[in-house]
Design brief:
Blueprint lengths: L2 H6 L10 E4 L4 E4 H17 L7 E5 L4 H12 L3 E4 L6 H11 L3 E5 H6 L3 H4 L5 E4 L3 E2 L2 E2 H4 L22 E6 L9 E5 H14 L8 E4 L6 H4 L1 H6 L3 E4 L5 H11 L3 E4 L1 H9 L13 E4 L6 H11 L3 E7 L2 E8 L1 H10 L3
Parallel strand pairs: 1-12, 3-4, 3-5, 5-6, 11-12, 11-13, 13-14, 14-15
Antiparallel strand pairs: 1-2, 7-8, 9-10, 15-16
Helix pairs in contact: 2-3
Protein name: AMP-dependent synthetase/ligase domain-containing protein
Organism: marine sediment metagenome
GO molecular function: CoA-ligase activity
């Protein structure tokens, strides 16, 4: 399964209420408009010579624009290399070199702050973006349907089934430099199928908030809920008061955060001033969580905390501790 299939096959293609919403850049696209944007950008990639199974990287903050780039990469049959903007420039260069990436979507601010880009890449290997545009094209243009008769052959040379490389994900790097874990079609299909099984559609319209880096678990988890027809809210970083307000305003149902970010929410003076009744899955992972903090989170956000364990090297939901599991463990005193 390609990443763009989670978009193209979503029931939200016929549901005008579900959208990709960029809270930082005031951008909102329907699923069909996202498809249109990905086709325009995929055509640009093809003109630049990107072929099936080439590696193309994204190096940009969380944004709807970044999602457009990811879907375009997938639509030409290339493999996506996500680069975390919070990692050092040098460590990301190592990942680019290891992957032999042929092209890079890069945020204009990152490129300006790192003049070494010009030493590593030709102008034709870079496509610049910010929250409002990609390759100089505003969303007002990108979101329009391609011209009548436009033919985009997006799968003609893509390996079939399990053989297709979909993404390269950086490992933790605890024993040296990060390695690159290869995720193929089967890995993505398995991961998202497990996620959909253990976290089925809620009883209200699904809305997933991405505030932790899109390049890691928070972004990876968004594809399964796309296939369920959810709205995707995007913000770059975790500002506690803003995030708490967004949950209430947009009736967020799904949220992924590491424990350290949850601690910041719990410590905020207005944490009890908002309505979190829409939350169905407050997903935490990536590190152990204090039992006392977990009890506090359940008291404030409700019995909606869920925990998973996995690694980039072992895609990726290896264990699942449901909201009900949490409640039962606390009642029995097992926590």
């Amino acid at each position: 399964m390609r990443l763009v299939d989670f978009l193209d096959c979503s029931p939200a293609m016929t549901n005008s209420d579900a959208r990709f919403i960029d809270l930082d850049n005031d951008v909102s696209l329907s699923y069909q408009e996202m498809v249109n944007a990905s086709i325009h950008l995929a055509n640009l990639l093809r003109k630049k010579g990107v072929k099936s199974q080439d590696v193309v990287a994204t190096y940009a903050p969380n944004s709807v624009a970044a999602y457009c780039c990811i879907f375009a990469i997938s639509r030409v049959g290339a493999a996506w290399l996500p680069l975390n903007t919070r990692s050092t420039f040098e460590s990301n260069l190592k990942l680019i070199d290891k992957s032999e990436a042929v092209l890079l979507f890069v945020d204009e601010g990152i490129a300006a702050a790192n003049p070494k880009f010009s030493d590593r890449f030709s102008d034709d290997q870079l496509i610049f973006l910010d929250g409002q545009q990609i390759a100089g094209l505003a969303f007002s243009s990108l979101s329009k349907a391609p011209a009548v008769g436009f033919d985009f052959d997006d799968q003609s040379h893509t390996p079939e089934g399990d053989q297709a490389l979909v993404s390269l994900l950086a490992t933790g790097g605890t024993t040296g430099d990060s390695k690159l874990a290869e995720w193929g079609s089967l890995a993505w299909q398995t991961f998202t199928s497990i996620q959909a099984e253990v976290m089925p559609l809620p009883d209200i319209p699904a809305c997933y908030l991405v505030s932790a880096p899109i390049t890691h678990a928070a972004g990876i988890a968004s594809f399964a809920v796309m296939l369920q027809g959810a709205s995707i809210l995007v913000m770059d970083g975790m500002v506690p008061e803003t995030l708490l307000s967004v949950i209430e305003t947009y009736k967020v149902t799904h949220l992924f955060l590491p424990p350290t970010a949850i601690y910041m929410l719990l410590a905020h003076e207005k944490v009890k001033a908002h309505d979190y009744s829409s939350l169905r899955y407050f997903w935490y992972a990536a590190a152990p969580m204090s039992v006392d903090k977990l009890k506090e989170a359940i008291a404030i956000f409700g019995p909606v905390m869920v925990q998973t364990y996995g690694q980039a090297e072992a895609p990726m939901i290896c264990t699942f501790f449901s909201a009900q599991d949490h409640v039962e463990a606390l009642e029995k005193g097992d926590a």
